From TrEMBL:
SMART domains: Kelch (SM00612). InterPro entries: Gal_Oxase/kelch_b-propeller, Gal_Oxidase_central_sf, Kelch-typ_b-propeller, Kelch_1. This is Kelch motif-containing protein. The keyword Repeat applies. It comes from Stigmatella aurantiaca. The keyword Metal-binding does not apply. Keywords: Kelch repeat, Repeat. Residues 350-369 are annotated as: Disordered.
Length: 369
């Protein structure tokens, strides 16, 4: 990879002005970009539509190759990489479909999509993780017409043609960060059971924030509670580190943006302080580095609606944060895929100039370079 030319942001091969709510998944030889919402010019404004567009980023050529459209266009879906190198797209939404049962499998050898096993429950904005044995666990849903549905998990075993029930969470209704630690799946807080989001007579209601940690054990397929988070966090980010520890960063609590972080130890099942960011931010990306460190990149800094390019790296030895190499341009809500040792493909929106609308671009980023 040529560091010189890959560091500059360049537009990805999509129609329209920009895209949102797509998936970016690391696959053998590069990364897969799939689905999303395309925004197109419409007079003095813009209009949106679900896209079936997909593209493969070839790491050897540092170039995008458009793919045949998705059999079923979607956005707000989950995407994971399977042990055999295929990518699995799960659930989501479309223009006239609020929740989807369907899944799609993409094979890097043929670079083609095919229908996968349908979910037991239709899900919009699901959360999915790949387990060490290659199985995929999915839970969560955006809609609340069934107050328990979002807490019921399902499992797809390697080679299986159908999803299986995988238990129901003990308390958490809308999940916080969901990470894998060994054979366990860890939910780091979220919103408690009780009721869904609603607006009644102009007042917004939501399930209460919870510091509860829930663990799923693969052998028994049961969820149980564990030691609580140190702070309540809404929209926090989490990532699995080396030695199966889990780092959770940021979020909101009572309208305040948090700059704090905490780490979960699998041996004790407890959380402890993991330092404080130099600047609190939302809509950032949290990424594990190969050597056990982690990096926060971009986001919207507290006190401003403008995105930042600033990155901060967490040191597990000192539990402190320090500045890392910034992104090429300010970004928020961006996605990353590991495409080499310490190298990440970054895809997200940025404004080429103060007067210009945002466009979706990509860059290669090496936090230590």
């Amino acid at each position: 990879m040529s560091a010189g030319r890959s560091s500059l942001p360049r537009r990805i091969p999509y129609a329209g002005i920009w895209i949102d709510n797509y998936s970016l998944t690391a696959v053998p030889g590069g990364a897969l970009l799939a689905g999303g919402i395309e925004w197109h010019p419409d007079g003095i404004g813009s209009r949106s539509q679900t896209t079936g567009g997909a593209a493969f980023w070839d790491a050897s050529a540092e170039a995008w190759h458009p793919l045949a459209p998705l059999p079923s266009p979607r956005h707000d879906h989950a995407a994971v990489t399977l042990p055999d190198g295929r990518a699995l797209l799960i659930g989501g939404r479309a223009d006239q479909i609020m929740e989807m049962h369907s899944t799609l499998l993409w094979d890097p050898r043929t670079q083609a999509f095919q229908e996968g096993p349908p979910l037991r429950e239709a899900r919009a904005r699901p959360v999915a993780v790949t387990l060490p044995d290659g199985a995929v666990l999915v839970l969560g849903s955006e809609y609340d017409d069934d107050l328990e549905r979002g807490t019921r998990a399902e499992l797809l075993r390697p080679g299986a043609r159908a999803w299986e029930a995988a238990g129901q969470t003990a308390r958490i209704f809308h999940t916080g960060p969901v990470c894998v630690s060994g054979s366990q799946v860890v939910i780091a807080g979220g919103r408690d059971n009780g009721f869904g989001f609603a607006i009644i007579d102009g007042t917004h209601y939501a399930p209460p924030l919870s510091r509860t940690t829930e663990l799923w054990e693969s052998e028994r397929r049961l969820w149980r509670t564990s030691g609580p988070l140190m702070e309540s966090r809404d929209e926090a980010q989490g990532v699995t580190l080396s030695e199966e520890r889990i780092l959770v960063v940021g979020g909101w609590d009572q309208g305040q943006l948090l700059a704090t972080a905490e780490v979960w130890e699998p041996g004790t099942g407890t959380w402890s302080a993991a330092g404080t960011l130099a600047s609190a931010r939302s809509s950032f990306a949290l990424t594990a580095l190969p050597d056990g460190r982690a990096v926060v990149s971009g986001g919207l800094v507290t006190g401003t609606s403008e995105p930042t390019a600033v990155a901060e790296i967490w040191n597990p030895e000192t539990r402190t944060w320090s500045l890392g190499k910034p992104l090429a341009v300010p970004r928020a809500g961006h996605r990353l895929a590991a495409v080499g040792a310490g190298t990440f493909l970054v895809v997200g929106n940025h404004a080429p100039s103060p007067e210009a609308p945002p466009e979706t671009s990509w860059e290669l980023w090496r936090p230590d370079a």
